[in-house]
């Protein structure tokens, strides 16, 4: 099973993924940015532009296929973005990328914009743009709308607004194996 966690940078994808995998050892986590950087492509905010983002998505597809082949008997949770923030603006990720990842379950993490703002400001481990609550609200709405409009073949979808771990766990238990 391949589960994709969507959400803006700082929404809680990594925290949810790690916690869920600790409680469910048949799952392992991956992140699009780590897979891309492992292929020697740049994920640095200063470098990102439309050409690099497009090349990164190609690297993600190939790198994730390799990741799946290295872990053939594991369920995978991958953290992804359907919008990429760059210094020049927002880049929409082509939905064909997600089709090629063979996603079975897609979840969108949608914390309150105030919580998102705080999480982004307080996380010193990742470089992020310093955006206002209003701008984060706009971006999250755009990302969520894109997620809702995306059709994943045979994929179950869920939007989680709060209490991420409990909602996600309950949802996962409801899915036929």
Q: What does it look like?
A:
It is a single chain. With 177 residues, the protein is α/β, with parallel strands linked by helices. It has a single domain (2-165), classed as Rossmann fold. The chain has helices spanning 13-23, 32-38, 50-70, 95-100, 113-122, 133-149, 164-174, and strands at 2-6, 27-31, 75-80, 83-86, 89-92, 105-109, 156-160. A five-stranded parallel beta sheet has the order 2-3-1-6-7, sandwiched between helices. The chain has a two-stranded antiparallel ribbon with strand order 4-5. A hairpin with a 2-residue loop joins β4 and β5.
Keywords:
7 helices, five-stranded parallel β-sheet, 7 strands, Rossmann fold, two-stranded antiparallel ribbon, alpha/beta, 177 residues
The CATH class, by name, is Alpha Beta
Alpha plus pi helix count? 7
Radius of gyration, CA atoms, in whole angstroms: 15 Å
**Distance between termini?**
8 Å
Number of domains: 1
Shape annotation: globular
- Assign the CATH architecture: 3-Layer(aba) Sandwich
Number of strands: 7
Query: pLDDT average, as an integer?
Result: 87
Give the helix/strand layout:
Elements lengths: L1 E5 L6 H11 L3 E5 H7 L11 H21 L4 E6 L2 E4 L2 E4 L2 H6 L4 E5 L3 H10 L10 H17 L6 E5 L3 H11 L3
Parallel strand pairs: 1-3, 1-6, 2-3, 6-7
Antiparallel strand pairs: 4-5
Summarize the structure.
The protein is 47% helix and 19% strand. The chain has 177 residues and is an alpha/beta fold.
